[in-house]
Specification:
Structural class: mainly alpha
Distance between the termini: 29 Å
Helix content: 55-70%
Number of helices: 4
Number of strands: 0
Order of helices and strands: HHHH
Length: 147
Amino acid sequence: MCEYPGRLMLRELWLSFKSIIPALSKWHLGIFSLAHATLPFLITLGRDFSSESNTIHSKYKDPFFWVYSSLLWTINFGIFYVNLTFIEIGVIDMKRRKFAMMAIETLLEPNRFKVKAAFQMYPLLNYFDPQTLLSWLDSRMIMLDLG
């Protein structure tokens, strides 16, 4: 049985989490933000033109209306994009925590046929060594704290 230093084990686990868990593509967030920013203007436009008269309202001829609408669209797009990015960061963090817990549990699994292919590179820990089990418990607590 090989002996691995705890720092090296945690470093290898951390590096494997970064490469296995993919991030979402940014264009999904951009499309959702674009739709969210455009929707209030389209609703207002639909309400104004749903009346019986098909004439263009005077507010659509006013340049201040278009400046106000474009600024409102820009701010709405930016705020919603930042919010979606924050949610995406939370999702990535939760995926990483879940993956970390599965990897830490794999270290104790003696039946290597049950282990998924991504986790088969991790070594098996010695159950009968109390220092090894305490180190495993410490590494598990570190992974729970750090994510």
